[in-house]
Structure formats: structure tokens, C-alpha cells
Specification:
The protein is built from ten helices and 13 strands. The protein is an alpha/beta fold. A hairpin with a 2-residue loop joins strand 2 and strand 3. The protein starts with 9 loop residues before the first strand and ends with a helix. 38% of the residues are buried. Keywords: Nucleotidyltransferase, Transferase. Its EC number is 2.7.7.9. InterPro entries: GalU_uridylyltTrfase_bac/arc (IPR005771), NTP_transferase_dom (IPR005835), Nucleotide-diphossugar_trans (IPR029044).
């Protein structure tokens, strides 16, 4: 089976950061384990993968993050307690967590450069040279009818590019926070890009279409990341990898997504994400909405 016909079954989740914006809460736990109501951020990412047909999840972590491995493992004592107390729904929920996918954990060692492209180097030995895979940042969440990851996979099957990145339009006052894309004027597919520019000030940004942490990559990206030098702030950037591919004539697609991208990258946006997820919940959404309306802000 060649690269273009293999199903996308693997995902790499980058979860090796220090979460310094959330100190002291992240002193002894990864930011990815902070809850969105009653599930950690990382659990939501895994569920999006699973709902998109992913079976194998590679988590790139760092020293001190064994809590994530424990979370996605069985907890016999807890299960026994829930069983004894007749809490069947909670027991079912807890027992399902280890069965969501096949989990593999790899450590990002300190000899490697820092940057959002580094987890690709770490996980490269676990990717076959004829398969595509999903790549996710550990702090971006989405709300959509069709999982955003599934949307990207569908475009990959249809267009067979070297890489796809998810983008969503952001307002002018947010542009400088993200990488924004410059689309080609003439291309086989209308969302092919010429370049991706990181954190450009308003007026120098090529568009308001901002990249966030959802990608589908072919092995072309693995080959390229191994050859890409560190860039701004001596970090290894995904944007530099994708720009190098695009300059070589490879097809790189920046796909607008259907749905809503929510980031947990800082406390303010984390709290906004909490609110949006709470409002989506069938069990608490209505009452929470009534509470928000009752506040005299």
C-alpha cells in the first residue's frame, strides 16, 4: 500500500511544554492535565482523534509528566470503589479511558532544540515512511459537528498534499498572536499557500487566517523537519518546515475549518474556553447560561 492510499491512523500530540503562564498550578502537573469542566484538556484532544478514526496516539512529553500516563491507564482501586458504591455511570466512564486508543509515550530530551516542531523529531522513529499522520498542539481545542481533525483528514484523502494545516479567521487585534497564511493566487486547490508568517503585526500580516494546532502531515514533513535549522528565538518552528516545503513546490494547504477553535494557551483564553464548553453541555449548559445572564456585569 503506498503512502497516498494508507489510512491516517496515527496522531502525535505535543505535550512537552512547561505551562509557565499557569504557574503555580502547573508546578507539579502538565498544563494539558488542567480540566475543562470534568475532563483534562488532553482528554478532549484524544477524543477528537478517536472520533476522527485515529487508533494510535503518540504523546510527546517531558520529565515529570507521568501523570498523563497514569490518567490513560487503568485505576483498579478507583474502579473497585465505584463498583462497591454502585456508581455505574462513573465506573463505565473511568474504565473506558484506557481503551480509547493505543497510547505510546516518548520523552522530549533536552539535547533537542525547543520549539513547536521538535515533537516531530522526537516521534519520527514511530512513523512509517509511507504514511500520513495527525499532529496536534496540546493547548488548542475545537467545537464542531464534524471533528476538525476528521475535516483535515478528508481533505488529505481528496487532495493528497504534503501537508495540511487548520486555519480560522481572527480579528485584527488578534493577528499578531498567531502565524497567518499567504495563499497562492493560482493553485490546483484554492487553499494552497505560498507562505506562513509567524506573529506579524497588523498591516504586515498576509491575511487574517491564523494557523492553530491541527495538522495532517505526510512523511515529507518528517524528512523536512530533520533538515530544518532553528529559527526565531533559536526555536524549531513548524512554520519554517512548511515554508521550506512550499518553496520547494510541495503542496501545503491551509484549510479553513467548520466549527470553532478555542485556545487554552493563557489564563484568559482558558477561562473563555471553559465557558464555551460549559454552555455546550446538555447537563449544565442551560443552568450555566441562566447564571451568566443573572450577573450584573
Amino acid at each position: 500500500m503506498n503512502r497516498k492510499s494508507r489510512k491516517v491512523k496515527k496522531a502525535i500530540i505535543a505535550a512537552a511544554g512547561y505551562g509557565t503562564r499557569f504557574l503555580p498550578a502547573t508546578k507539579n502537573q502538565p498544563k494539558e492535565m488542567l480540566p475543562i469542566i470534568d475532563k483534562p484538556i488532553i482528554h478532549h484532544l484524544v477524543e477528537e482523534c478517536v472520533d476522527s478514526g485515529i487508533t494510535d496516539i503518540i504523546m510527546v512529553t517531558r520529565v515529570g509528566q507521568g501523570i498523563m500516563e497514569d490518567y490513560f491507564d487503568s485505576h483498579i482501586e478507583l474502579e473497585q470503589m465505584l463498583d462497591t458504591n454502585g456508581k455505574e455511570d462513573l465506573l463505565k466512564t473511568v474504565k473506558e479511558i484506557p481503551t480509547l486508543a493505543n497510547f505510546v509515550y516518548v520523552r522530549q530530551k533536552k539535547n533537542l532544540p525547543y520549539g513547536n516542531g521538535t515533537p516531530l523529531l522526537v516521534a519520527a522513529p514511530l512513523i512509517d515512511n509511507d504514511e500520513a499522520f495527525v499532529y496536534m498542539f496540546g493547548d488548542d481545542l475545537t467545537i464542531s459537528k464534524t471533528p476538525v481533525t476528521k475535516q483535515l483528514i478528508n481533505v488529505y484523502y481528496e487532495q493528497k498534499p504534503s501537508a495540511i494545516l487548520a486555519v480560522q479567521e481572527v480579528p485584527d487585534n488578534e493577528v499578531e498572536r498567531y502565524g497567518t497564511v499567504k495563499y497562492k493566487k493560482k493553485a490546483k486547490y484554492k487553499y494552497e499557500i505560498e507562505s506562513l508568517l509567524e506573529k506579524m503585526p497588523l498591516g504586515k500580516n498576509p491575511s487574517n487566517m491564523a494557523q492553530f494546532g491541527r495538522f495532517v502531515f505526510s512523511y515529507d514533513v518528517i524528512n523536512q523537519v530533520k533538515k530544518t535549522p532553528t529559527g526565531k528565538d533559536n526555536e524549531l518552528w513548524v512554520s519554517d518546515v512548511l515554508n521550506s516545503l512550499a518553496k520547494k513546490g510541495a503542496r501545503v494547504i491551509a484549510q479553513p475549518i467548520e466549527g470553532e477553535w478555542l485556545t487554552t494557551g493563557d489564563p484568559l483564553r482558558y477561562m473563555k474556553t471553559q465557558v464555551r464548553f460549559a454552555l455546550e453541555r446538555e447537563d449544565i449548559g442551560r443552568e450555566f447560561s441562566e447564571y451568566l445572564r443573572s450577573l450584573k456585569l
